[in-house]
Amino acid sequence: MILSLLEATTGLAQLGTAIGAGLATIGAGIGIGKIGSSAMEAMARQPEASGKITTSMIIVAAFVEGAALFAIAACAFLIK
Asked: How far is CA 26 from CA 6, 34, 55, 72, in A?
């Protein structure tokens, strides 16, 4: 009986992990977009600091992408 109950919920579990992976991807896209937007505004205000701003932007974007990849991998491992 327990086994049949678990088999019935695997479809919902797979749906939940797919939604979680999608939300992680969307969140990373929005976050990296905001990072790029803020960096462009900062470079427009202070063009002489564009090197430092670009470096910081790339580092923060890599952290956001790493967190999103971790979330997507965690969702992928939960799918049976």
From this structure: 30, 12, 24, 11
Angle, alpha carbons 56-57-59 (nearest 5°): 65
Number of alpha carbons in the 13 Å side-chain half-sphere of residue 42: 15
Where in the chain are the domains? 14-78
Residue 66's pLDDT is: 95
Please give the angle made by the CA atoms of 68, 69 and 75, to the nearest 5 degrees. 90
Alpha-carbon span 65 to 32, nearest angstrom: 8
Q: Tell me, which fold does domain 14-78 have in CATH? A: F1FO ATP Synthase (1.20.20)
pLDDT at 8 over 60: no
